[in-house]
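Notebook entry, structure prediction.
Reason for the run: the old model in the group folder had no record of what sequence produced it. Starting over properly, with the input documented here first.
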Amino acid sequence: MGALERMVVLVTPEQRETIRARAKAEKLTMGEIVRRSVERYGSQADEAALEKLIEKVEESTDRANRALDRGLAALAAGMARIDRMEKQAARRRGSKPRSR
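New structure, fully documented this time:
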């Protein structure tokens, strides 16, 4: 931790008691509780932004997976059609179809 500066902060008696109780429970000073709260406040905003980003990534991943599934199904259908056409052509020629 770098240099510290003194700052006067006005709080209600209830807020002061909450800070005091947390400090006592965590065996920290009241100032340290306030400093940590300030640090967490910023990270909570970051976490909210990350949660939204994660949600968007999950949605786009789901869309991409569905599109890939459709593409693979279309490819499989196309390959099956080609196989049928090759078998028909081989029957007409009287030869064996090519194997893949």
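Summary: The chain has a mean pLDDT of 91.
The old model has been moved to the deprecated folder.
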